[in-house]
Amino acid sequence: MRCPFCRHRGNRVVDSRLSNDAMMIRRRRACSACKRRFTTYERVGDNAPMVVKKDGRREPFDRAKIIAGLKRACEKRPVSMETIDQIANRIETAMAEQSDREVASNTVGEAVMNELHKIDQVAYVRFASVYRSFKDIDEFMHELEDLINQRKQTPASRAGEKKGDGAA
Fold it and tell me: How far apart are CA 38 and CA 30, in angstroms?
């Protein structure tokens, strides 16, 4: 493990902790050359499937790509990095638990959209606009209309409306 500051290879582990879900180990390290501290995360990576892209290419599942897409979609939204990390963990676990050693890229994309739909609808629309490659404003509006209709049909939103009506 190289120090991210001075690139020296020698370091020692100062502290190790399991993550809340026990799927990752967080290690605090101290560089033996520059004495600065840094954090590393270790996780099991041998069970990750290959992702089959739309053009037929295959590449290893990359959790960092999921996090990058989530960060972009959630930019300037009230979504914490902890939430983004939890979503990435759930998606990574779901893809690893599939019986197939290969998973279609659209399966991964749909999983990200489902997670975003639950936590932040603006982030969901942002991600969907890139993921679904809307060709014109009509396709975009259709997606928004579906989102609005789903929102009207959920029991939670109706219960909130009833509470608001009774208080007024």
Answer: 7
The domains of the chain are located at 1-43, 46-145
Give tens-digit pLDDT for 135-154.
778 877 887 888 788 777 76
User: In this structure, are residues 69 and 127 in contact, taking their beta carbons and an 8 Å threshold?
Assistant: yes
Tell me which DSSP letter residue 78 carries. Answer: S
Q: Which residue has the higher pLDDT, 98 or 162?
A: 98
Q: Which of the 8 DSSP states describes residue 19?
A: -
Q: Which residues contact 3 (CB under 8 A, 6 or more apart)?
A: 9, 11, 31, 33, 34, 36, 38
Q: In sequence order, which residues have a C-beta less than 8 Å from that of residue 58 and are 6 or more positions away?
A: 50, 51, 52, 102
Alpha helix stretches (DSSP H) within 16-168:
63-73, 81-97, 105-119, 121-131, 137-153, 155-167
**Structure token digits, residue 97:** 């638990």
Q: List pLDDT tens digits, range 42-71.
A: 876 556 788 999 899 999 889 899 999 999
